[in-house]
Design a protein that fits this description.
123 residues, seven-stranded mixed beta sheet, 0% helix, 49% strand, globular
Length: 123
């Protein structure tokens, strides 16, 4: 019932910026509050938490070159990334915690996942 769709992945040059989007839809009408986490995974590596935002209390975890935000008029959460480097190359995922609405960088805390969007940083 809950569907997450990431978009915005692209090939960017080192030092560039990119904004990813995560659109949340709920056909079952079960969503009230939730938390969104952003993760990334490169081949041979574990899934890494980058940022999160709770819609319940606004708790946010981000910083450095990454910033999470929401368009409060829509169910879209953004991940703004700057100063990208080749080591940032990965598939980026958003995930939703619909049970406890907690901002967390721990992947098992999340209930629903998007399909991912590829970010490649290369010259």
């Amino acid at each position: 019932q809950v569907r997450l769709v990431e978009s915005g992945g692209a090939l960017v040059q080192p030092g560039g910026s990119l904004t990813l989007s995560c659109a949340i839809s709920d056909s079952g009408g079960i969503l009230a509050d939730y938390a969104i986490g952003w993760f990334r995974q490169s081949p041979g590596s574990e899934r890494e938490g980058i940022a999160c935002l709770s819609m319940l209390d606004g708790e946010r975890i981000d910083g450095g070159r990454f910033r999470v935000s929401r368009d409060w008029n829509t169910d879209i959460v953004y991940l703004q990334m700057g100063g990208l480097q080749p080591e940032d190359t990965a598939v980026y995922y958003c995930a939703a915690d619909v049970q406890f609405f907690r901002c967390s960088l721990h992947a098992p805390d999340y209930d629903y996942w998007g399909q991912g969007t590829q970010v490649t940083v290369s010259s």
